[in-house]
């Protein structure tokens, strides 16, 4: 998958790159996701965000118009994402429900992307608010 990760801290870069192992076309930037930086998501399948990035209806619609179909927050919390509207747009959303260390967050994030890439579901990390046939394909 073509993926952009926003709001990446310096210490996250190596950990995410190592967890990815060149499976996904992953771009890492330190910029927060907002209307001034959203253009970096153009041509991407998915965006990775932190809980510092707010995805309200406007942001979600702009991402949707760009063709982004999947969102992963690198946090347990999802209150910074309008999950209902993401569901209306048929966007997949996942979190990292077992986050503890930076390494485990990175691994769960990449695992979520890989599950979607092969047509599966993010399992316990799934925060989708839509009917999805992929839920039956969990590993």
UniProtKB/TrEMBL annotation:
What name appears for this protein in its UniProt entry?
Lactate dehydrogenase
Task: Tell me which species this is from.
Answer: Sphingobacterium zhuxiongii
The record's annotation in InterPro entries points to:
D-isomer_2_OHA_DH_cat_dom (IPR006139), D-LDH-like (IPR058205)
Q: What is the lineage of its organism?
A: Bacteria, Pseudomonadati, Bacteroidota, Sphingobacteriia, Sphingobacteriales
Query: Any idea where the D-isomer specific 2-hydroxyacid dehydrogenase catalytic domain is?
Result: 8-101
Q: Is the keyword NAD assigned to this protein?
A: yes
Keywords, A to Z? Answer: NAD
What one GO molecular function would you report for this record? NAD binding
């Amino acid at each position: 998958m073509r993926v952009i990760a926003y709001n990446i801290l310096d210490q996250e870069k190596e950990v995410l790159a190592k967890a990815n192992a060149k499976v996904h076309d992953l771009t890492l930037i330190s910029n927060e996701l907002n209307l001034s930086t959203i253009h970096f998501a153009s041509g991407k399948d998915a965006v990775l965000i932190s809980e510092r990035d707010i995805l309200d209806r406007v942001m979600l619609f702009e991402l949707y118009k760009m063709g982004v179909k999947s969102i992963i927050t690198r946090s347990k919390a999802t209150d910074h994402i309008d999950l209902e509207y993401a569901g209306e747009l048929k966007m997949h959303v996942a979190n990292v429900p077992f986050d503890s260390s930076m390494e485990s967050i990175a691994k769960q994030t990449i695992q979520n992307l890989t599950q979607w890439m092969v047509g599966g579901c993010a399992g316990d990390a799934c925060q989708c608010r839509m009917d999805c046939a992929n839920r039956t394909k969990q590993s």
